[in-house]
Amino acid sequence: MAAEPLIKVENLVKHFVVRLGAFGERGATVYAVDDVNFDIFAGETLSLVGESGCGKSTTGFTLLNLQKATSGKVIFQGENIVSLNEKRMRPYRRELQIVFQDPYSTLNPRMTIGEVVGEPILFHKLATKAELPEKVTRLLADVGLPARFASRYPHELSGGQRQRVAIARALACQPKFIVCDEAISALDVSVQAQIINLLLDLQEKYGLTYLFIAHDLAVVRHISDRVGVMYLGRLAELATREQLFSNPLHPYTRALLSAVPEADPELEKTRQRQILVGDVPSPLAPPAGCRFHTRCPIAMDKCRAVVPEWREVETGHHVACHAVEMETAG
Amino acid sequence: MTAPEIQKPLLDVRGLTIEIETRRGPAIIVDGINLTVGKGETVGVVGESGCGKSLTMLSLVRLLPNKIKVKGGTAEFAGRDLLKMSKSELRQVRGGKIGFVFQDPMTSLNPVMRIGDQLCEPLIYHRNMSKADAGKRAIELLRLVGIPGPEQRITAYPHELSGGMRQRVMIAMGLACDPELLIADEPTTALDVTIQAQIVDLVKDLRKKLNMSVVWITHDLALIAGLVDRVAVLYAGTVVEDAPVGELFARPTHPYTRGLLASIPKLSDERASRLSSIGGTPPEPGRRPKGCPFAPRCALAESICHERVPVLEPVAGHSGHRVACFVAQRQLKEAA
């Protein structure tokens, strides 16, 4: 792993102000992402997992400056990109791309596939109009679609094919980094595997770096180099794939992993699950101290009052938990 | 757990065929499905979107949307054909003897009714309970599905509950009248994994307590591995394989089942190793190819597969395991 990260995320915070009540008479703050720190290294796949509403997608959007960060820094090529306005951000947009979850709503229904894929190339002036068809053909070939698809419209394509188009569009201006925001969640099981393979092939071919946002831990375990676990807007744990899946330290990570069903009836029969009680608290009023303490089986008094520190307990293994801190210190 | 002894099944679906009205004329979307559920048995119905798994179950309680009609077949429930029942008889079955849990709790609960009142409705209707008794039972039911503080919760409206809570209310409604059969249509798809684990454990627990039969519809093979006794795999409106759960995972026989199982990432996989995938996409409902519906995507397909439709036949030597595939059946015979 290279020493210098491709992207450095420092104390990233994103709060949304929402209006509540029938007439929007009450204001409230959603603490979507709170003080998140991590590095993304060139060529790796870093996954963010967590339950709905934990802020993993918001982290992805804020990191790309698609949503204005409330505070914090995202350093890319020596520049804090979240402080840039849209105009100054534009040269960086080329390098930083995103693939969204729903391939049905992210493609303009009135544009042909060729126009969809060609638009970013023309916008960033990476080719002339004359060179465009050839570029589009090559991009479609990269994602396993025949050239004749360029003249089709999105409604003529299946979900898996549309997701391939979305990936081709993200690849169009030779990015370094792609955020895959639940990019395979909306697809059928048999098609998911095709897209995972495609993403892995493209990573190898172009040396891409992925931030993979997902809730399916079986998939995350398959493709990631490192995995970050989020809970209610904060990172609970971040470690290499091996560390996280064989030695999870945070009680939330443990519960999350034990809840994932395995496709093995024998194993499932004998398996001990650690079932969490209760629901995720509202991000409008996150609990004080450690945000997981309301559901944590080993919560102590300290957890209810003090926010646990984000610490590196062994090389590359970060965790925020008072109990783990006590164990490793003593 | 062992499969219950073979007797007359509680639910016996034979040759169920469902048709949809399209602009190009009628198209078959469920083609001659056979499915049995024994007393106390839990059956998983697995398939991808558009394979007809939800429509099959909806047709049993005659809740199919307009333009979609049952064209043929029978569905005997405790000896009576659900598809031929009068409306008044059917009303006794719906929510009474057969409980239903729908996928999306946000659209299936009445948003302007308190959840307590929604829970009481079937009790008053099917069990002739007084309002006061029904109210007490509603609280019991909410406690049963693990909702804390049920006395306060019964006065809540659906929007005041979280997704997991709403799904529990749906399950409580499905269970309200102690049904003999619970049909759960992707009850955990909209939920997070930790909540999903809670719901699965809950259903396992209740099944034992109430000796109820369960049909669990899902697209997630991993999820049902530890939950069901038997699995029926659906593809494009037909059952392609049907086997006890251990048998299915140990000896998947239909190329589609094999492909599905192989495409799930496993614990033992190397990082970033290639997943085996099934090429192509499932046919759109109503655009089924001639012959075996899986043939266009099947690596083993031969000329007969494109001509004739294979029927579900027993896998020799493995009781209760049936598969609809010409090639697999021939390979089994050659091996024997």
UniProtKB/TrEMBL annotation, chain A:
CDD domains linked to this entry: ABC_NikE_OppD_transporters
Classification via SMART domains: AAA
Predominant place of localization: membrane
Topology of this chain in the membrane: Peripheral membrane protein
Listed GO biological process terms: peptide transport; transmembrane transport
Alphabetical list of Pfam families matching this protein: ABC_tran, oligo_HPY
GO CC aspect terms: plasma membrane
Alphabetized UniProt keyword annotations: ATP-binding, Nucleotide-binding, Transport
GO MF annotation list: ATP binding; ATP hydrolysis activity
TM regions (residue ranges): none
Protein location: Cell inner membrane
Span of domain ABC transporter: 7-257
InterPro entries linked to this entry: AAA+_ATPase (IPR003593), ABC_transp_ATP-bind (IPR050319), ABC_transporter-like_ATP-bd (IPR003439), ABC_transporter-like_CS (IPR017871), Oligopep_ABC_C (IPR013563), P-loop_NTPase (IPR027417)
Keyword hit for Nucleotide-binding: yes
Family (UniProt): Belongs to the ABC transporter superfamily.
NCBIfam families reported in the protein's UniProt record: oligo_HPY (TIGR01727)
PANTHER family in alphabetical order: D,D-DIPEPTIDE TRANSPORT ATP-BINDING PROTEIN DDPF-RELATED, TRANSPORT ATP-BINDING PROTEIN
UniProt-recorded name of the protein: ABC transporter ATP-binding protein
Species of origin: Aminobacter anthyllidis
UniProtKB/TrEMBL annotation, chain B:
Keyword set, alphabetical order: ATP-binding, Cell membrane, Membrane, Nucleotide-binding, Transport
GO biological process: peptide transport; transmembrane transport
GO molecular function: ATP binding; ATP hydrolysis activity
Pfam families: ABC_tran (PF00005), oligo_HPY (PF08352)
Main localization (coarse): membrane
CDD domains according to UniProt: ABC_NikE_OppD_transporters
Location of the ABC transporter domain: 13-261
Topology in the lipid bilayer: Peripheral membrane protein
InterPro entries attached to this UniProt entry: AAA+_ATPase (IPR003593), ABC_Ni/Peptide_Import (IPR050388), ABC_transporter-like_ATP-bd (IPR003439), ABC_transporter-like_CS (IPR017871), Oligopep_ABC_C (IPR013563), P-loop_NTPase (IPR027417)
Compartments where found: Cell inner membrane
Keyword Nucleotide-binding carried by entry: yes
Top-level taxonomic group: Bacteria
Any one annotated GO CC term: plasma membrane
Recorded family membership: Belongs to the ABC transporter superfamily.
Name the UniProt record assigns to this protein: ABC transporter ATP-binding protein
